[in-house]
Specification:
Elements (H helix, E strand, L loop, with lengths): L1 E3 L9 E3 L3 E3 L9 E6 L3 E4 L5 E3 L2 E6 L7 E4 L9
Antiparallel strand pairs: 1-2, 2-3, 3-8, 4-7, 5-6, 5-8
């Protein structure tokens, strides 16, 4: 199930099911963007870096990387 994450500051990111946050890059040439992660611990699927939820972060957005975060307890580096 895809649903927008209800947060007035981060209206362009969404939850893909209950355990994945996707924060697409909407503007050409964008090098960074703000993300907000809900409660819990979250892993960047590209790097494995852990983020604490209920916080906003500025993350790098190279062309080849869409910011995607998975709940830590659901993260399996071998499948990504």
């Amino acid at each position: 199930m895809i649903r927008p994450y209800v947060n007035e500051l981060m209206e362009d990111q969404y939850l893909f099911g209950p355990d994945m946050v996707v924060a697409p890059v909407l503007y050409e040439g964008c090098q960074t963007r703000q993300i907000y992660l809900p409660e819990g611990e979250w892993c960047d699927i590209h790097t494995g870096e852990i983020f604490q939820g209920e916080n906003s972060y500025t993350v790098d957005t190279p062309v080849q990387k869409i910011p995607v975060y998975v709940r830590k307890e659901r993260y399996n580096r071998n499948c990504c």
